[in-house]
Design a protein that fits this description.
It is a single chain. The protein has about 100 residues and is of the alpha+beta class. It has a single domain, classed as 2-Layer Sandwich (Alpha-Beta Plaits), CATH 3.30.70.100. The chain contains 3 helices and 4 strands. It has a 4-stranded antiparallel beta sheet with strand order 2-3-1-4. The protein is globular, with a radius of gyration of 14 Å. The N and C termini lie close together (about 5 Å). This is ABM domain-containing protein.
Length: about 100
Amino acid sequence: MVYAFTQDVPIDEALYRRIMEQLGPEPLAGQVLHLCVRRPDGGLRYIDVWESEEACARAFDERIHPAVDAAFGGTRPGTEPRVDRLEVIDAQGALLHAAGS
């Protein structure tokens, strides 16, 4: 089942770029879409779509959190930014069809 969420993060573009460098070029298994946009009041907003919530959780455990830790110089802040789950009614697109969703 497709899993989608938004997350507002209190970081700037430079830190975001460091996180992305730490992730490397290998695609995250199960990720359909990651969109990062600038918020008008500061910080960034992530809009993510995953094949499943389980694929998302695995990617955070195995790749995303270690990359964030490294970008923060060893340890990320103690609390995670709030995740606002999106209720997916329908999802279309080439990436979703390729994934078999």
